[in-house]
């Protein structure tokens, strides 16, 4: 695993995304164990629910971002096709 020192937010995410599934599992496990250490079951439950809520919202945000990007990509493709059609129409009008 790499070091996070002196990296801006984008670099940290890029490095974080490059972890293997095994490394992420180990990181999640060690984080959970560290957080749970010397806490009551109630505190752990509250923290767990909070983390789950944050995770759910992050997934919803990411899904919406993907959906919006897909819509924009389709709109861009439609615009490109319309421009190509206009070009072909001009060629036909000019008798090419």
Structural domain tally: 2
Give the mean pLDDT.
Answer: 89
User: What is the CA-CA span between the terminal residues?
Assistant: 62 Å
The percent range for strand residues is under 5%
Helix content: over 70%
Number of helices: 3
Q: Which residues sit in consecutive blocks of at least 5 with pLDDT less than 50?
A: 1-7
Secondary-structure-based class equals: mainly alpha
Gyration radius, in Å:
24 Å
Characterise the protein shown here.
- By secondary structure, this protein is an all-alpha fold.
- It folds into 2 domains: 1-38, no CATH class; 41-96.
- The chain is 81% helix and 0% strand.
- The protein contains 3 helices and no strands.
- The protein has helices at 9-17, 21-36, 41-93.
- The protein is elongated.
Features:
3 helices; 2 domains; disordered N terminus; 81% helix
